[in-house]
Amino acid sequence: MIHFDVQGRIGVITLDRPEARNAINAEMAEAIESALDRLEHDDELWVGILTHNGPAFCAGADLKEIAAGNADGLWTKRGGFGGIVLRDRVKPLIAAVDGPAVAGGTEIALACDLRVASTETMFGIPEVKRSLVAAAGGLVRLPRALPPAIAMELAITGDTISAERAYHFGMINQLCEPGEAVDGALTLAERVLANAPLAVQASRRLILDAPEQTDAEGMRAASAAMAALSSTVDYAEGPRAFIEKRSPRWKGH
Questions:
Q1: CA 144, chain centre distance (Å)
Q2: Annotated catalytic, 107?
């Protein structure tokens, strides 16, 4: 159900349940959580990509599981729905989407830090069409990723939004042609990898925490992060590489 491939310092996690449109069942939720564990615990990996096999990124929850009374199994203790939407992570994760990502599929994409999507992609939280609510983050994260009026429209009509429109509003980072989402995500990952990994991780956390902080609180947190970095090897390597007019050789410590 899940494949994990290593490309340099990038861990590529592939959803592989195409016969069910990569819908989440208990086994898949546990597998995603395990894949994220591997990404987080491997010091040689600095960035992750979450992608899929088959024409759909993810159709959300497996409704057969819900009908059978197994809805709780789609949530893991640490990761929440799909083993990911509530997962506390350190390393950047990029969603590479090349097909429909609806309901929980949209919520999984929103749980990633960056998104690359092809023109074959559509997003949406159609739960209201089945007398459900998008309980895995869609109603919280969508208004941050889209203008509030557009997020409200999607939430109460259950309609989808095209990748082109999502890109226009800033929900996705890169729009690409069909079949090119993974390549686009790899290129984006390489841009991240050009930078010091500990500084990337600290900056990611500061961006995520910023909406809940005052300006002063955010700046104090950034100063604390800078102080923590000052004792690392990479902190000395950055200025040294600049002075020596060469590319930095990051160590990740």
A1: 14
A2: yes
- Cα angle at 201 between 199 and 206, to 5 degrees? 90
Least confident span in 66-70, 78-82, 120-124, 144-148: 66-70
Q: How far apart are CA 148 and CA 153, in angstroms?
A: 9
Q: Dihedral angle at the C-alpha atoms of 63, 172, 174, 190, nearest 10 degrees?
A: -90
Which residues, 6+ apart, have CB-to-CB distance to 115 below 8 Å? 94, 95, 97, 109, 171, 172, 173, 174
Indicate whether this model's pTM tops 0.85: yes
**Smallest Cα–Cα separation from 21: which of 60, 49, 47, 50?**
60
Q: 38 CB contacts (<8 Å, ≥6 apart)?
A: 4, 11
User: For this structure, is 127 an active site residue?
Assistant: yes
**Of these residues, 44, 107, 217, 237, which one is catalytic?**
107
pLDDT at 66 over 90: no
- 30, 127, 217, 244: the active-site residue: 127
